[in-house]
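Q: Hi! First time doing this. I have a protein sequence and I read that you can turn it into a structure. Is that right? Here it is:
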Amino acid sequence: MIYIIGSLRNPEIPKIGNKLREIGFEVFDDWYAPGPNADEYWQAYENGKGSTYKQALRGWAGRHIFEFDVAHLSRADIAILVLPAGKSGHLELGWAAGKGKWTYVLFDQEPERYDVMYQFANEIFFSREEMYKYIYNEHLVKKYPYITY
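A: Yes, that's right. Below is the predicted 3D structure, encoded as structure tokens:
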């Protein structure tokens, strides 16, 4: 299963998920469903209760959302970080890499500032088509050589 990591504000997430499903993969991108302002709504709710960030992380909503994401990331074989993404996305990719999962990064453009740490990922891509073909060949063809893209 492929877990897509990215930003709630990135409208490309469901498109990438749909294409990977079309190719033949099981994809988890359901975390995207709450919409682009989910984090801000959660923060406003917690602030309204007088919670600190630390308290919010340990509250029912913070724990539930975290456990939901971790449960699905845990069952994934492959994690793809779709840029741009924030700190959470990078933490998720690092966690997945540390667990020995296949990890990939899809850049939305050539970075202004180079960063050597993306080498923790198994591969990086600057084109969706290149990524789709690579993942298809690495993870479907080698496993099921009779499937064609």
